[in-house]
């Protein structure tokens, strides 16, 4: 659901016919999300699911321990 909203926002300059591509709109976060560029502002990619990020780290750790045994 979050990605749907992010992509909707990235499409707004296209709908307004300000640019030909979302990557061309200077103030879009498109480049930060998809091209990993931090211009003009850096985007915190972990903000939307901080609990899930922690759960993922734990799951990776558990899998590594399981593979050792």
What does this protein structure show overall?
This protein has helices at 2-15, 30-34, 50-68. It is elongated. The protein has one domain (2-68). Helices cover 55% and strands 0% of the residues. The longest helix is centred in the last third of the chain and has 19 residues, at 50-68. It is built from three helices and no strands. The protein has 69 residues and is mainly alpha-helical. The N and C termini lie far apart (38 Å).
Structure summary:
The protein has 69 residues and is an all-alpha fold. Helix content is 55%, strand content 0%.
- Report on the biggest sheet: none
Beta-strand content: under 5%
The helix count comes to 3
Identify low-pLDDT runs. none
Per-chain topology:
Blueprint: H1 2-15, H2 30-34, H3 50-68
Question: Any key phrases for this structure?
Answer:
about 70 residues, mainly alpha, 3 helices
